[in-house]
Amino acid sequence: MTQARQPALPELAKAALYRLEKALDEENAALALFDARNLPEFSRIKTQSLLELERSSSVLGPEQAAPELASILESLREKLELNRWLLLLHLEAAKEITTVITSAIRDIESDGTYSRASGKSKQ
Q1: Contact call for residues 50 and 24 (beta carbons, < 8 A)
Q2: Closest by alpha carbon to 90, among 44, 41, 39?
Q3: How far apart are the first and last CA of the chain?
């Protein structure tokens, strides 16, 4: 009796993890340099890698996971935390810029009629 050959899911999972890790490294480096040109591509790669991982994990049981995967997952967790922090930093900066621009537009468009500081009318 021959055993059915198991698909190389651990290898597929590892390949997806390495692809995800590489994308995170590149995205983190770009974010640290304030270079957002490739963010949509990084997002696409991360989404695709996570989809591949989800598919392989549904068939891959914990008993099949090699200890090597645990170290890859720990490294990935650290890179994801850095990625989350860098993205949050960029979102906060964008929020501040938006506030400044909105305030400047409001000041330009206002004639001072409803301003508390306007004691005199403009003529």
Answers
A1: no
A2: 39
A3: 99
User: How far is residue 7's CA from residue 2's CA, in Å, rounded to a whole number?
Assistant: 15
Q: Which amino acid is at 104?
A: A
CA distance 114 to 117: 9
| CA nearest to 27, candidates 78, 77, 84 | 84
Report d(CA 79, CA 76) in Å as an integer: 5
CA distance 1 to 5: 12
Global confidence as pTM: 0.69
Identify the CA nearest to 17 among candidates 52, 44, 41, 42: 52
Closest by CA to 92, choosing from 103, 84, 80, is: 84
Low-confidence ranges of the chain (pLDDT < 50): 1-2, 6-8, 122
Task: Please name the residue ranges forming H helices in the chain.
Answer: 9-32, 39-59, 67-109
